[in-house]
Give the backbone structure.
Amino acid sequence: MLDVFFTVDVEIWCDGWQRLDERFPHAFRQYVYGPTSKGNYGLPYQIEVLNAHGLTATFFVEPLFATRFGNEPLAEIVGLLKEGAQESQLHLHTEWVDEAREPLLPNIRGKMQHLRQFSLDEQMSLITVGAQLIKNAGGGNMSAFRAVRAGVKPASMSRHKTGAIEAGAGGLEALV
Ligand SMILES: [Zn+2]
């Protein structure tokens, strides 16, 4: 029998990087609740459809936005998934790194789109921060990580196989 995995990325974008704090509440509603003139088709809708068919999906949640806007909106996402008996796992968009209120790394070098643009130690540290953010938001321990379009360095893939990322970055078991 063929195994099929339903996976969904959950991420918030503010339509550019200007006036972020002003734009965030609207962006959060758009990306999480998906309002349209015919109803809401965001996360709660997806969860409802999955549950109606007895299915569990893995939702790869991008948590770095919380370093700018606080834990509460992330906890809202994780709470929806938990309540809907769906799985939360880790996804990272490193464009948020230079928008965090407290520096996430000792050396921030502006807007960086891909995890692979960071050193291996920085990658591991960002994965650890992300996993901790989701844990703090009520999401438990992360065991899988999805980078952006193969944005993980090959070096970190092989180190993962030897257990280095597993030991250093929140007990991950899978990179997808
Ligand atoms: Zn993404």
In short: Helices lie at 20-33, 43-52, 66-69, 71-83, 120-139, 154-161, 164-168. Residues 9, 11, 91, 93, 148 surround zinc ion (CB under 6 Å). Residues 158-168 have pLDDT under 50 and may be disordered. The chain has one domain: 7-175.
